[in-house]
Write a structure and sequence with these properties.
The protein contains four helices and ten strands, in the order H-H-E-H-E-E-E-E-E-H-E-E-E-E. By secondary structure, the protein is α+β, with helices and mostly antiparallel strands.
Length: 198
């Protein structure tokens, strides 16, 4: 009997403490006031933690405007954190200086002369956004690519090119970084592209 009384007293004390804590925390969080955690942001902290979009959707007009054109492979940026024999470690595929043409009505990667597996020429290609990441942490979690040249809060769109007759994506994809940089992904290798003046 004495034991039951002691347990009831302890439960009453605990419930009163919990109820008091919850009402105190509610009264301290007034609308429009930041808590100390919200106020302490720095440039090293991700400000956009939205979940990525993973699926497929058509290119938006802003991405189309940026993406279409002739691009030249400028330099090797790095590799995904997954092994792939075709990536030719540690130098990457020999495509520096090669060109790719991306237009609404046609696509050509015939400039990859040393690699027939990457040479495609097609009319009416299907371009799609396969992923949108709102920070590099999200991008790394999904794609396992860590590039030091990316900033924490960069928006990264993974773009694919598909053959309109089969609907299958080709083994070449692109990373659109903030509609200001375009990266080429071949297997597990990432290259920087630069726009060729037309």
């Amino acid at each position: 009997m004495r034991r039951k009384a002691m347990i009831l007293i302890l439960l009453s004390i605990i419930s009163a403490s919990v109820a008091g804590c919850s009402s105190a925390s509610l009264s301290n969080n007034k609308p429009g006031q930041e808590t100390s955690m919200e106020a302490s942001t720095s440039s090293d902290v991700t400000t956009n933690t939205s979940e990525p979009m993973i699926g497929s959707k058509d290119l938006d007009p802003e991405t189309e405007k940026f993406f279409y054109g002739t691009w030249e492979v400028e330099k090797l940026l790095g590799f995904a954190d997954s092994y792939n024999d075709a990536s030719e470690y540690p130098t990457g595929q020999k495509v520096i200086g090669d060109q790719i043409t991306v237009n609404k009505d046609n696509f050509s990667s015939k400039g990859f002369e040393a690699y027939s597996a990457y040479q495609f020429k097609m009319e009416n290609p299907v371009y799609q956004i396969r992923e949108i990441h709102y920070n590099t942490d999200s991008f790394y979690r999904v794609d396992k690519i860590d590039l030091p040249s990316l900033n924490m809060n960069d928006q990264i769109k993974v773009l694919s090119v598909s053959d309109p007759s089969t609907g299958l994506a080709i083994p070449i994809s692109f990373l659109d970084v903030n509609n200001t940089r375009l990266l080429l992904v071949l297997e597990a290798t990432v290259f920087e592209l630069k726009r060729v003046a037309e």
